[in-house]
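Quick one - first record:
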Amino acid sequence: MLRLAFAVTFADAETATYQPLPGHDCLPMRVGEPIDPERYPRVGS
């Protein structure tokens, strides 16, 4: 089972940034780095 623990913060859909939870920096990204929509596409609700 794969478990991801991170939060995505954004002011709008175009400015999402990577914010890992403490101790769970599981993606090869820097904190606050913009999330690439090509690599990590948004999921509609």
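second record:
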Amino acid sequence: MARIVEIVGATPEVRAIESQIDRERPLAVVAAELADRASLTPDEWQTIPLLINPPALAPLAVALLAEIHGRSGQFPAMVNIRPIAGSIPTRYEVAEILNLQAIREEARRRR
């Protein structure tokens, strides 16, 4: 958390949302339920800055990004976590914070 505070310059409010899912269920439904668990109002979805640590399951992470974009009108920032080289047992650190909206806007210039 200290690294995130260092990068973003503020202490974020953390909402730990369990992301283990039943793979038999449609991902769009599961993504909507995960977003609902954040307990944000429609106004909050559109006005507060979001920083997510997406689920490890790639298809669910993509569906959740689509859900968040639909609710907020933009992509959130994302925490990139990487293993610490040589750590035993394996530990992880915050590598960077990606501004997905800025990445999208830059990509649009390459169309």
